[in-house]
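Problem 12. The chain below contains 131 residues. Write out its predicted structure in token notation.
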Amino acid sequence: MNLAQTTETFGQDDQSWLASAHGTNTGRSITLDTSAFTAGTHYPAGFFPSGLVLGKITATGLYGPYSDAATDGRETAVGFLFTAVKAPGATTIDVQGALLWHGAVIKANLPIPASLDANGAADLAAKFDIR
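Solution.
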């Protein structure tokens, strides 16, 4: 029997980027390609925060950070990471998440507001009310 004391810290997900509950009950299960993200930029606190703008990598079907400069499918924004996901210890391990694929968002409250540029907003315009 192990009676050693352990401490575990839990945070609270900041979903202030959601402008309404619309779409939050229809999240899609996805897999994040951890190697496509940058540790200090996309998950500096050890987790992928909700609200990251995502694109779908054409060759694998996995999701990575949207980038208009990408050429692997991520140049098209497809939605947002709905809830925070703990980052794995290695970039070779992909993790499961949920994609918010339609709804309303507040751009200024995204974890990286500048990641949603005009082209990304245009990609999402048919399914999102971006405020």
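Discussion. Residues 28-130 form a domain with the Virus Head Decoration Protein; Chain: A, fold (CATH 2.40.300). Students who got a different answer should revisit the alignment rule from Section 12.3.
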